[in-house]
Amino acid sequence: MLVNDMYKKILENLGTAVVLLDNQLFIQYMNPAAEMLLAASARQLSRRDIAEWFGTDADQVEGLRHSLRSGHPFTRREAKLRNQSEQMLTVDYTVNPLPMQQENWLLLEIEARDRLIRIEREEELLTRHASAQMLVRGLAHEIKNPLGGLRGAAQLLERELDDISLHDYTQVIIEEADRLRNLVDRMLGPRKLPDINDVNIHAILERVCSLVAAESGGSVELIRDYDPSIPEFRGDAEQLIQAVLNIMRNSMQALQASHTQNPSIKLHTRTMRQITLGTEKHRLVCCVRIEDNGPGIPEELLSQIFYPMVSGRADGTGLGLSIAQSILNQHCGLIECDTRPGRTLFELFIPLELNHESVR
């Protein structure tokens, strides 16, 4: 009895989902990890047909039936599985036949791949962004020093010129030097330390909505889907307003340039639990989804949109998304993008449990 209790405790504390199926492919046991993965209890699924909850195509169920008949184990990588919350999952699973009462049962070990895929993607995104920022900082140093000398020389030259009409030329040099210096400063993103206070994410979104509505003249419909239970968190409200505004302004301009029918931007807020951003796991995260029905981002630009000076518009500076990503990074957060024709989605992830020292 003690041994059985120990085995049960081990199964219930595994991070891998374990499901035991009888010879009719009905569930006889699920550990808590499996219930969490499938978003349903063993009681809810125990008498349901396997095809209703396992896999997204008939081949996956047929693979289980073949394993029952043949007694051969098998493993499948990156299979698609839809849980009871209608969430599409990417999983690896291993099937092992078990002789039980002169019949084969099946032991399934299911491991979610979404989190690992997400961690790898986010690490790559953060690494690329950090590399771009280092490159920009190096270029900024090399550009700003000679610009300062150029501006100073133009000012000295202006004082030596007796002909006042020639001052127009020196002013052009000074103004262009200032313009380039400001451009470099914008490429570097926010340079001051965050002003940390309690922040309400919906107050930030409403402030940005008022700005976008004024800029668009009401031509773009703004749709809200807020979760009012999201608590306040520690952050810099002005910087977060800038980050959200940069994204929504891009969406608005894309909608206007493409003459999209019934243009709209939807704002959606929810909390998410146990989310890994980069290499750090957070217990509670605020997710802000900004979705428009515009033409989408060209595929060749998608992997580069958070780089400085990358823009899909001829008149764009390519700095808005880079600055937004830098601001979210300062709040230990991250921005991700998914796009297709007719839909572009930006997701902003902001940890809700940060102290003053955590915000960098």
Can you offer a commentary on this structure?
This protein has 360 residues and is α+β, with helices and mostly antiparallel strands. The chain has 11 helices and 12 strands. 45% of the residues lie in helices and 26% in strands. It has a 5-stranded antiparallel beta sheet. A 5-stranded mixed beta sheet has the order 7-9-10-12-11. A two-stranded antiparallel sheet has the order 6-8. A hairpin with a 5-residue loop joins strand 1 (17-21) and strand 2.
The biggest beta sheet is recorded as: 5 strands, antiparallel
Give the beta-strand count.
12
Structural class: alpha+beta
Proportion in β-strands: 25-35%
Helical residue percent band: 40-55%
Entry keywords:
single chain; 360 residues; alpha+beta; 5-stranded mixed beta sheet; 11 helices; 26% strand
Secondary structure layout:
Blueprint: H1 2-12, E1 17-21, E2 27-30, H2 32-38, H3 42-45, H4 50-53, H5 58-70, E3 74-82, E4 88-100, E5 103-112, H6 114-160, H7 167-188, E6 197-199, H8 201-216, E7 221-225, E8 233-235, H9 237-258, E9 264-277, E10 280-292, H10 299-302, H11 320-330, E11 334-340, E12 343-351
Parallel strand pairs: 7-9
Antiparallel strand pairs: 1-2, 1-5, 3-4, 4-5, 6-8, 9-10, 10-12, 11-12
